Amino acid sequence: xxxxxxxxxxxxxxxxxxxxxxxxxxxxxxxxxxxxxxxxxxxxxxxxxxxxxxxxxxxxxxxxxxxxxxxxxxxxxxxxxxxxxxxxxxxxxxxxxxxxxxxxxxxxxxxxxxxxxxxxxxxxxxxxxxxxxxxxxxxxxxxxxxxxxxxxxxxxxxx
Length: 159
Ligand SMILES: Nc1ncnc2c1ncn2[C@@H]1O[C@H](COP(=O)(O)OP(=O)(O)O)[C@@H](O)[C@H]1O
Ligand SMILES: [Mg+2]
Prior knowledge:
Rossmann fold; 6 helices; binds adenosine-5'-diphosphate; binds magnesium ion
């Protein structure tokens, strides 16, 4: 009799509003696995052009999304562990992503909304990257807590 040990690749799907600490968490805890995010390309273009995130956002978000999805497809083809660093606030937005992750253990990592003063401080710490208040409000309003029946293997709260 032959026994197979099957270990699935892991995707950490981050869930949290802007400035809740997602990218910091990734750098601190998973600095050397794959990383899917639209910000990666947007920040690269901004740096190359000597402009701010805000300056280039509108003209780069479509290309950034397409590049990110290509990267995810490559991770999935190769069975690479990776972090999916986007806000992922609604079940609908997560469902689209979970559908791509055949064969993965997907861990939801929830970032709580920092209290008002702390959030303001964190948002202010990123010059040139401003998230309009109405966008933040609508993200907070659209939040649906993740549940295992969406397809997550595990749900954890980031500290
Ligand atoms: N756990 C934390 N405690 C205090 N400050 C934090 C924490 N996580 C992130 N920050 C700070 O908050 C700001 C936003 O964090 P970031 O990781 O960029 O958030 P996100 O990726 O969710 O938009 C940064 O200035 C970062 O240094
Ligand atoms: Mg980030």
